[in-house]
Amino acid sequence: MFLPRRQQQQQQQQQQQQQQQQQQQRQQQQQQQQQQQQQQQQQQARVPQQQQQQQQQQQEQQQQQEAFPPAWVPTTPLLLLLLLQQQQQQQQQQQQQQQEETAAGKYSSTGNICSKPKLN
After folding, report:
1. Which residues is 113 bridged to in the sheet?
2. Of 25, 29, 54, 68, which one is least surrounded by beta carbons within 10 A?
3. Average pLDDT for residues 93-106, to the nearest whole number?
4. Following DSSP, what letter does each residue of the chain receive, concatenated?
5. Which residues form a coiled coil (predicted)?
């Protein structure tokens, strides 16, 4: 179907706006990841092994986000992007909580709560 020229131009403008918004979101995500990596490095002295694994996971996530071609942008509703962003933030916060608790000795390295020694 061919659209009249005026409508076509409007559509192009909307697509460009969406692309710009997504680039901004990407930049925000990168900033968040950088901040978290700094926090992780401060904690690293306490539980080195676990944290290195989690840093790798975060870097992989970053690469996956950037692997999508820009052509993919206009088809994605911004709401979906926002939801994805929120989910990632929650995941990262949970990881951090667990790290802090591991550092405090609340969890064993397997992620189970340490059982108190039984008294005979």
Report:
1. 107
2. 68
3. 67
4. -PPPHHHHHHHHHHHHHHHHHHHHHHHHHHHHHHHHHHHHHHHTTT-HHHHHHHHHHHHHHHHHHHHS-GGGSTTS-HHHHHHHHHHHHHHHHHHHHHHHHHHTTSB-TTSSBPPPPPP-
5. 5-46
